[in-house]
Design brief:
elongated; 434 Repressor (Amino-terminal Domain)
């Protein structure tokens, strides 16, 4: 969140915190959420870079467009296995997958 927005909210009496604090997540749970979000973001980027629609990605995965939409929306019913499968089917390289993971893991450890 932008620092100007944080200042405005704080001045108005709002308490500004993290999603981890709000949801009462443990450090491990927060890291898992962060990793899932990084992978989902990487799927969207790889799909766009490859010029794939959700339908085309679903066909590559032998799945449905609605399942791809759930993946990209971060639906909790979607397994990490399916997220990785979508990332691979979207054309992401092993290096890109590692980079998506590495960035979020380093960020989470720094906190």
């Amino acid at each position: 969140m932008k620092s100007t927005k944080v200042r405005k909210l704080s001045a108005a009496g709002w308490r500004v915190g993290t999603a981890r604090e709000f949801l009462g997540l443990s450090e491990d749970e927060a890291r898992l959420v962060s990793i899932r979000l990084a992978l989902i973001d990487a799927i969207r980027k790889a799909r766009a870079r490859s010029g794939l629609s959700q339908v085309a990605l679903a066909e590559r995965m032998s799945s449905s467009q609605s399942r791809v939409a759930k993946i990209e929306a971060g639906d909790p019913s979607v397994s990490l296995d399916l997220i990785i499968r979508a990332l691979i089917a979207s054309g992401a390289s092993d290096l890109e997958i590692g980079a998506a993971l590495g960035t979020k893991i380093r960020t989470a450890k720094a906190r």
